[in-house]
Amino acid sequence: MTKKLQQEIEEWKGKYFRALADYQNLEKRVKVQEKELVKYASEKIIHELLAVLDTFEQAEEHLKDPGLTLGVKSFWEVLVKHGVVKIEVLGKKFNPHEMECVEVVESEKEDDVIEEVRAGYKLEDKVIRVAQVKVGKKIENKSKIQNPKSETNLNYQNTNDQNR
Fold this sequence. Notes:
The protein is of the alpha+beta class. It contains five helices and six strands. The strands form two sheets. A three-stranded antiparallel sheet has the order 1-4-5. Strand 4 (120-123) and strand 5 (126-129) form a beta hairpin. Helix 2 (43-63) runs antiparallel to helix 3 (66-81).
C-alpha cells in the first residue's frame, strides 16, 4: 500500500511541477505581449500622421517657407522621439521587406535603388510603411528594345495573323 501511495505522490508532484512550469511560461508570454503592445501602440496613429508629413514636406519643397520648414522639423522631432526612423534607400540594393518597386529604370547598377518615390518608415524595428522606389536594371542588348521588329514582336504578330 505504501508503494502505491508513493507512486501517486510522485505522479501528483509531477503534474504540479508541469502545471507550475506552464503557468510561469504563460506569465512570461503575457509580459512579452504587454511590452510589444506598449511598444507598438502608437503605430496606427503614426501611420496616419506620415501621410500628413508627406503633404507638409511636399508643400515645404514648393513653397520654401521658413515657418513651414520649422514646422516640418518639429513634426520630425516628435516622430523620432516616439521611435520613428526613415528607411534609407538611395544607392542601396533593393530589399523587398522595406521597399516596393514602382518602376524599373535603365541603370549602370543592377538592383540598386535609383530614386525614392515615397519615403518608408520604421517604428522601432518594425516596418510600418515600405518605401516606394525606382530600381535600376542593366539593359545589355539595347538593339532588341529599340527594334520594333524584334523576334518577340514578330512572334506576337504571327500569332495574331493566325487568329484572323
